[in-house]
Amino acid sequence: MSFAEIEMDVVRWGEARGIVQNSTPYPQALKTLEEVQELLDAILAKDREAMIDAYGDILVTLVMGCATADLNLVSCFKHAYEQIKDRKGYLTPEGIFVKES
């Protein structure tokens, strides 16, 4: 199953529950922040199962946010990739990305 197919399944799930019709991008973004905090907690706890759950939940909230804004997450993802694909650089051991000219 492709990412785009899963995205559409999630959109249909959200429509069946009134999320797409009755929510807006802002509360969905807040939900994303909640899920990101759960991910951070899972990473700190080194809890792999909780990390899997949190990453998945983040994707669901992003799909719902896009759907409430009449956007497509795959298209947004592709747009972001098109902007970064030609960037050159490296990540230092301190976690700082250094762009090359």
Quick summary:
The protein is 71% helix and 8% strand. With 101 residues, it is mainly alpha-helical.
Protein described:
- The structure is a single chain.
- The longest helix has 21 residues, at 25-45.
- The chain is 71% helix and 8% strand.
- It has five helices and two strands, in the order H-H-H-H-H-E-E.
- With 101 residues, the protein is mainly alpha-helical.
- A two-stranded antiparallel sheet has the order 1-2.
- The relative contact order is 0.13.
Descriptive keywords:
101 residues; two-stranded antiparallel ribbon; globular
Question: Would you spell out the secondary-structure blueprint of this structure?
Answer:
Elements (H helix, E strand, L loop, with lengths): L2 H14 L2 H4 L2 H21 L2 H21 L4 H12 L3 E4 L5 E4 L1
Antiparallel strand pairs: 1-2
> In total, how many beta strands?
2
Low-confidence stretches: none
How much β-strand is present in the residues?
Answer: 5-15%
The best one-word shape is globular
* Helix-and-strand structural type: mainly alpha
* Main pleated sheet: 2 strands, antiparallel
Strand order, main sheet: write it out. Answer: 1-2
Helix and strand pattern: HHHHHEE
Q: Count the helices. How many?
A: 5
Distance between the termini: 39 Å
| Helix coverage percent | over 70%
Radius of gyration: 16 Å
- Give average pLDDT, whole number: 96
